[in-house]
């Protein structure tokens, strides 16, 4: 038995670390929230009816009462509204007599006193569907569960929500009413309350962070395997963004890529401080024949216009490894010698990408920043949260190669 517990602990611990690694990768593209990037803040009440017909073993569920609730509804992957996504509803529930915990509030303690956080995701309702995430277009007809059970006095307890009524428009335009249920992992659902939510007068997202491991309902406890699966991801999600991921305000504003002004999403941006001068770095960039030495993916240079790197100049390169190489070209769209270079890099059939390279002179050092995103072709069809980590990883290696060539005197 002890050996089996050790194996189970090792498996769930490894899975938790794997999820955390994925979250760290996603933070390259989404430094603030790697999943559930955008949400809608809601508030309301939860009326608990108790369980006179049979106790769940969780004090909070078995006792009737009225709770105040702050909630956040979101789409997990952040896919376009026209595509199905995993729906999420996070609740911060305040017990009677307590004020609703607002943004920045610590929530409940491990003893179950104070506000509690309960997280739901769209799943099936029967077996085994209640333990499987189900993408949905919207909340109409969707069912949600906590996916992982709590431990009560009588064993594991799963919580679930089912929509009773929706506002005529969007969730921001009226009251959303849901029934609260509980069940043992393989048992029938039993209704034990009603949740009513509505948006404020100015609907929008909220900065509140939810933690169901630290803030648990009275009488409920997270299983050890649940903690091993979830805790590393929660910690990774709240870590600062990797130092190579930096904002690129000048470039973005110049091309109207601000998320607030135009609704467009910013380019994938990485930066590295070189131990060489800006002049040394620019010599490498200005020599088009060196392009394949530092740009990841370029395998050879076939020709370079004499005007390179002047505006409109092209270099003709190949992409891929022999014998599977594709011939294409890269064109300069804007240049400020010694300071910046904007390119449209072609690599069909994958498509085209906009690349912005900027140099910040720091004497004997130079900070080099590359901002890039797909602008045309199949690469543009890949969801941004998936393509950004790939672009960022490739451009970090590109910066490392460029620094080595600059330090080594290439281009002189």
From TrEMBL:
InterPro entries: Catalase_sf, START-like_dom_sf
Region annotation (Disordered) ranges: 240-264
Gene3D superfamilies (UniProt xref): 3.30.530.20
Protein name: Polyketide cyclase
Organism of derivation: Pseudarthrobacter enclensis
